[in-house]
Amino acid sequence: WDQERIALPPRGPLELPLTVLEVGCAGHFELITQAEKPDGDGFPLSTLPHGLPPYAMELVSELEQRFLSNPEWLPIHHFERSHSFWPREKDIQSLLEVDVTPVHSTLQAERNPTTGELLGFREALADNMGLSAKNSLSFQRAPGPPDQALRGSSTNYPFWPGGMDEPSLEQIEMREELEEEIDFEKELLTVPPGWKKGVEFTKQGIPFWSMASPGLLTLTSLLEALDNFELGASSDEEEKAEKDKKEEKRKKKKGKGTEDAPPQPAPLQRANSLEELVLKEVTQAPQLVPQASSAPPAAEPPKEQWAIPVDITSPVDDFYKRIPNPAFRWPFEPDVFQKQAILHLEKHDSVFVAAHTSAGKTVVAEYAIALSQKHMTRTIYTSPIKALSNQKFRDFKNTFGDVGLLTGDVQLHPDASCLIMTTEILRSMLYNGSDVIRDLEWVIFDEVHYINDAERGVVWEEVLIMLPDHVNIILLSATVPNTLEFADWIGRIKRKKIYVISTLKRPVPLEHHLYTGNSQKTQNELFLLVDARGNFLTKGYYAAMDAKKERASKHSQTFGAKQPTHSGSGPGQDKSVWLSLLDMLRKRDQLPVVAFTFSRNRCDDNAAALTTVDLTSSTEKSEIHIFFQKCIARLKGSDRQLPQVLHMVDLLKRGIGVHHSGVLPILKEVIEMLFAKGLVKILFATETFAMGVNMPARTVVFDSIRKHDGTNFRDLVPGEYIQMAGRAGRRGLDTTGMVIILCKAQVPEMADLHRMMLGKPTQLQSQFRLTYTMILNLLRVEALRVEDMMKRSFSEFHSRKDSKVHEHMIAQLSRTLASMEQVDLSGQLRDLEDYYQRVAELQETRQLIQKRIMESVNGMKALSVGRVIIVNNREHTNALGVILQVRHTRGLSLAHVSSDATNRTFTTLVLCEKTPEERGLAGSRTNGRGTPDVPLPDDLLLTKLFLPEGPCGHTLEKLNPADISGITTKTLRVIPERILDDFKKRQMPRFRCVCNWKGGFTQTPHFTSKPRCDLASLLLISMSFCLARYGPHLGGFSDPSLLFPLQFVRLRERRRVQEELARLLYLLSDQSLLLLPEYQQRVQVLQELRYVDAGGAVQLAGRVACEISNHELLLTELLLENVLTALRPEEIVALLSCTVCQHRTQGEEPQLPSTLKQVLFGCPSPFIGDGGPFAEIARLTDVQEGIIVRCIQRLDETCRDVRKAARVIGEPTLHAKMEAASNMIKRDIVFAASLYTQ
User: Fold this and answer.
1) Cβ atoms 1157, 628 nearer than 8 A
2) Under a CB-based contact definition with an 8 Å cutoff, are residues 119 and 125 in contact?
3) pLDDT in tens, 225-256
4) What is the DSSP letter of 67?
5) Which of 469, 780, 893, 1082 registers the highest number of CB atoms within 10 A of its CB?
6) Prediction pTM value
7) Residues contacting residue 854 through CB under 8 Å, at least 6 positions apart
8) What CA–CA distance (Å, rounded) separates 109 from 34?
9) How far apart are CA 945 and CA 876, in angstroms?
10) How far apart are CA 988 and CA 246, in angstroms?
C-alpha cells in the first residue's frame, strides 16, 4: 500500500501555498511556494540581514542620488510624487476670533492737591500700548511674565539708563524737520540693511525715470515743473496758518540775538590811482582781523557743578524740627554727618558718604531702607563680596524684618522691600530688564573704594551707568582723596546733584606702635610711633632701632661675630615673638586682637604654633563647644570629621581663630560669630577680613607690612593699611585703638612707615574695560550704543567733563567762520591754498626737528657763548645773531641746572636796522620782502639772510629756543661782559652815537646752517628728509601778487578757526574714545565667529553668549560645536571645572577618561564629579578645603549658565544632563546654608 502512487488532480491557483518572506531589514519581500511540513513547521517569515548591519543614508547623499542624479524623481516629471496636501476645511467662525488688544485707556486718580483726599477717577487715554519688554526700553511697557519679574531675561530690553536723553516725540519731529532733502536721482540706496546684495534700478547707466520715450512727458518732469510754478497769493487760510507756524518754529530755533547782521562792506577809500589803492590794502593786511573777532565774545556757559560738598562742622540743631517724624530712630544720637545725610535723603537727593572706618556709615543705609518702606518702594543694597551680603542680611533682617537675599545659588524672600545682593547680580538684572527696577527708590553701594579692583571694578561703573533716572544713589566708602571728582562724574552722567559728606577724624583715634620683643625679657619693647593726634614720633622709631641693635650686639658677643647679626623669621623665632606679644597684651588687657597676615599658610602656621596658649576660661570653653556643635549639627557625619573641622575646634576652645579663603565657609561664619561675642581672643586673618566686616577689635597686629599683589612683593599702600588698621578701637568701649607692627627681622625704614601711616589713601581710579558680555548685551538693543557706555565711563571723565564748554565754543567758532570774508583764489593766487599747506607742514616739521636738536647733548653744546645763529621771530626775519649769555629761566647759571633745553634763554646780539624808525619804515615797505605773518619762500628756506637797507645796527634780545631757526658753524671770540656793559651804557641819551655804516653788501655772506648734533634717531632722519623735499616745492611757486599778504592772512585765520573747530569736534566725537580701537577689534572677533553680523545684529551664538557670565566665548563654542552633548554629566562637570579652578597643586594628576583627554589637551587637572564624599575629594589634592568649596560653587553657577544656554539653542538632552550635573556636585558641606540666613 505504501508503494502505491495516488494520482491527485492538479491544484488550482487558489490552492498554492503562497507565503511572503521578508528578507533582511531593507524592506525587500520574496514569494514562497513551499508547503508546510508534516509536523506543522513552516518556513520562517523573515530572515536576518547578511553582511554589515543596515545604516541610514546621509540626507545629502540621498538628495543627490534621488533628485539630482535621477531627474525622474523630480515632481516636474511625475506629479503624483509631488508634495501631498490636504483640503482645507472652511471655518467661518474663525474669522470672528481676534487677539485681545491692549486697553487704550486707563483710570487716573484725582486728588485734592492740598490734603491728598481722593476725589474720584477719570478715564485717560494711554499712549504706547504696544510696547513690551521685547521691543522697548520705556517704563510704559507692560510688565513681563511673573517668573521673569525678579531676574529678568536675556531677551528683554533694559530700561532706559538715566542721564541719557530719551528721544521724545517733539525731538523726533524736530529731527524730521532738520533732515536734509534727498536727491532721488543720485542718493538712492540700493542695498537694504543686513543684505549682502541689493537691487539696481538702472539699466546701462540710464536712470529708470529717464527710460520713457522721447515724445512722452514723464512724471518727474511734471513734478519739476510744479516745483517752479508759483500760484501767487493764496487765499487758503489753512495754508497761511501752517506757514506762520513754520515761521514761528524757525524763529524759536534761532532765538534772539543769534542772527548776526550781515557784514557791511568796508567804505571805499579815495586814492589818486588804482595802484595806490591796492598798495594801501596790502599795507594794512597784517592788521586785518576777522569781523567776528571784533564783536563782543559770547558769554561762556556756567560751569556745571554736580558734586556738592556738605559742611559737617556746623551742628544740625533743628534736625527734629525739620524731620518731626523720622522714618527710623536709633537708641543713640546720630552724628552730625549722619544727620546731614538723612536730611538729604528726605529731600530725595543722592549722597556720597566717605567716612572713616567704624564711623557709622551703615546708619545712612538703614535710614534709606526705612524710608523706602515708609514710601512703599524698594531698596537694593549691594556689596562687593558674598560673605558681606550674608552678614548684612542678618543685621537688616533683625532690624527691619522685610529683607530678602539674592546670591548666585540662594534666593530668600525675593518680594521683600529691601533686597541684598552682590553688584554682579544687580548688573545682570539691569541688562535683563528686571521689573524690580520699576519700584526701586534707592540703590546703596557699600565699600565703593572696591571699584579700584582690577578684575571687578568695571562692574560698579556698568551699574552706575545703567541705573534708570528715577533711582537715587547712596555711596558708602572709606575716606579717599578724590571724592568730589568721583561724585562729579556720577552726577554728570546721571544729570543729578550728588552731595558729598566726609568725616574729618575717626571716632576712636589710633595709636601706632613698633614691637621688637621676642622673649619674656623683651616682651615690653613696645614703642609709640604715631600718637592719637597723628604726630609722627621719631623718638619712638630711634628707640626701636636702638633696642634691635642692642640685642644684635649681645647676640654677637654670646655666639660669635660669624653668627647672623639679626634674628631671622623662622618658625621658632615667630613662635617666640607671638608668645611674648600675647603675654604682654593679656597683661595690659588689650585683647581681643586681629593679626593680619598676608599668607594663608602663614596664618595656619602661626595658629598651629601656639599649642601652649590658652586664652579662654572654662565657661567660655563650654559656650564655644555648645555653639560650635549647634552650628555643625546639620552636617553629615563624614563632614563633621573633616581634618579642618577637628583642628578648628581645638583652636577655638583655646580662643584662637583663623580666617582666610582656605577655611570652609561655614567655619568662617562660626569664627566671625564667636569673635563678635568676644570668645575668640586672637584671630589670624588675611586682608579680606577688613573688607566691610563690622567686627572691630581692641588691637590690630601686622605680621608684616609687605604683601604679594599677584605680580611681586611690595609694601602696603596707605589705603590698605588704613583699611586694616581701622579695625582697632571699639566705639563706646575703647578710648584709643592700638595698632602694632612686628619687627621680626629689621625695623622698617622711617620713610616707608611715615608714607604708609600718614600718606594719602589711594584715589578712586577707573578700571573700566570692554567685555564681550557687555558688547553683546548692548548690541542686541538698537537704541543703546557701546560708544555711549564708553563715553560715560570714569576713564573718559576728564576728557568729557568740558563737553558743554566745547559745544559752546563750537557754536561760537561756527558763527565766526561764517562771518569771515572769503579768500580770493583767482589769477596769480590760484595756488595759495597749496602754498599755505606747504608752509604749515614746513614750519611744523622744522619745529619738531628744532625741539629734538635743542634737547640733544650736541645741540646744547653748540648753543654756547660766541655761536652765530639765525633768528626768526616777530621782530627779526633770518637775522644773524651772536650768543652772549645762556641762562636758565629761573635765573640760575647753566652750570647749576640740568640739561633742560626748554627752560633756557639766550641773550643774543642781533643784526638789525639802525634806528627804530627805520625798522618800522623797512617793515612797511614790502618790496617783495615777507614778514613773520606772511612768509615768502626765500624766508622759509633760509636762502637769504637779513641785509639792512640803511645804516647797520644791532640790538640785544633775550631769545627762547623757538626763536632760533638755525645754528651756523661759525663761532666768534667775544667778551660778553664788555658787550653787555657797553650796550647798557649806550642806552643812555648822552652815550648814544651814530655810525655812518652803509649796507654795501650786494650778496649775502655764506654761512652753513648745519646743526651740530647727533641725528641717530630714525625720526629725526625721516623729518630731515621731509624738510629737504620742501625746497623744490616752495621754489616752484610763482611770484606773489600785491594782494598776496591780505589773502594769506585771511586764509591763515580761516584755517586756524577750522583747525580749532575740527579739534573740538574730534573731542566730542566717538573717534576720541580711548577704548574705541579695542572695541572695533572685539567687534571684528565677534563677526569672525558669527556672533554678530556685518550690520551689528546679534545672532544665535551671540544670544547664547549673553546667557553665560564667565568665559562666554569659550563655553559658547563648546556648546555650538556639540562637544558637551556627547559626554556624560560627570565628564561635563570635569571639563567645565577647568574654567573655574586655576590653583597650582603639587599632587599627581588624576587619570582621565579618553573622551576627556581629547578635549583637555594642555588644560589643568579637572575636578571630576563622581558623587563621592567631600572628605575623599579633599584628600585627592593639597588645595585647601575652602578653595575647593568656592570652586565647586562657581562650577555650579557655570552649570546653571550652560543649562540656560542649552534652552536657548533647543538642546533638551544637554539641558537634562546639566540639571543632573548640578545635582551631582552639590555636596553637603559645600552647599550648606549660611548661618546668617538661619
Assistant:
1) no
2) no
3) 444 444 444 445 555 555 565 566 555 544 54
4) I
5) 780
6) 0.73
7) 860, 863, 901, 902, 961, 964
8) 94
9) 10
10) 73
